[in-house]
From TrEMBL:
Its main location: membrane. It is a lipid-anchor. Its EC number is 3.6.5.2. InterPro entries: P-loop_NTPase, Rab20, Small_GTP-bd, Small_GTPase. One of its GO terms (cellular component) is Golgi apparatus. Its cofactor is Mg(2+). Transmembrane segments: none annotated. It comes from Cyprinus carpio (Common carp). This is Ras-related protein Rab-20. One of its GO terms (molecular function) is metal ion binding.
Amino acid sequence: MSQASRTKKPDVKIVILGDMNVGKTSLLHRYTERKFKDTISTVGGAFFLKQWGPYNISIWDTAGREQFHGLGSMYCRGAAAVILTYDVTNWQSLAELENRFLSLTDTANTDCIFAIVGNKADLTDALAQEPEPKSERRDEPQPVVTCPTPPATPLQHKQVSREDAIALYGRVLLYKGLEEKACLPAERMCFETSAKTGYNVDILFETLFDLVLPSILKKRSEGENAIVDLEMPMEVKKTKAGCCAGQI
Ligand SMILES: Nc1nc2c(ncn2[C@@H]2O[C@H](COP(=O)(O)OP(=O)(O)O)[C@@H](O)[C@H]2O)c(=O)[nH]1
Ligand SMILES: [Mg+2]
C-alpha cells in the first residue's frame, strides 16, 4: 500500500450528535479552522480527517440531517467515540439527546466512549468569554496585540447545569449497560465549551483522540485493518485486509 493511501484511510471514527443549532458544526469548524462564523452552513455529509500522531481520526458532523431527514443507523456505525452536544442555554437540547439521539448510538462500537458537551458557554460564563489563548511557540516572536479586549457580553441564564450533564452521563452508561465504576469518570467526560471563543474546544477533541487510541490498536491487533508488514509471517498478512472501506 502506498504511503499516500495509508495517510488518507481513517483508523477510527468519532461522531458529533445533537439537536440542530447547538453548535456541532461550529465546534468542528473552530477546532479545524481555528475560527468562528455566526452563520455557517453544515456542509453535505463530510467528515473531517485529523492526523493524530501516526493515526488518522475521522470526525463526523451530521451534515444538517438531524434537522431535515433524521440520522440513520449508519451515522454512528463503528464509532469509537460519540460527542453528545447540547446548548447550555437550552434545556430542551439536553432532553433531546436522550429522547432522539442516544438510540442512534446502538450501532457504535461496544466499547464506545461518550463525551457530553454543553456548548455556547460564552453566553453564560464569563470565563468562557475570554479569547482562546494563542498556542505558544517559543521559537517565534509573539505578535503585538493591537485590538483592545471587547467588552464582556451580558450573561444569559444557564438552563443546563454541569450536574445535569453529569447525571445524563450516568444515564447514558446505564442505557449502554455499562458499569459506572468501570468507565471513564463523568467529571472527565462532561465538557462545557464555546465554539465562539474556543473555550475548552481543543481539550475536548484532543482528550477524545487520546482516549480512542487503544481502540485503534485493538482493531489493528484483531486484523481488521491489517497493513502488510514484510517482517510479519504470512498468516498475519492474510487477515481481513481491505475491509475497512465499509467501516465509515
Ligand atoms: N454564542 C455562541 N454561539 C454559537 C456557538 N456555537 C455555535 N453558535 C451559533 O449557533 C448557531 C448554530 O450553530 P451551528 O454550528 O450551525 O449548529 P449545528 O446545527 O449544531 O451544527 C449559529 O448561529 C452559531 O453561530 C457558541 O459557542 N457560542
Ligand atoms: Mg451543523
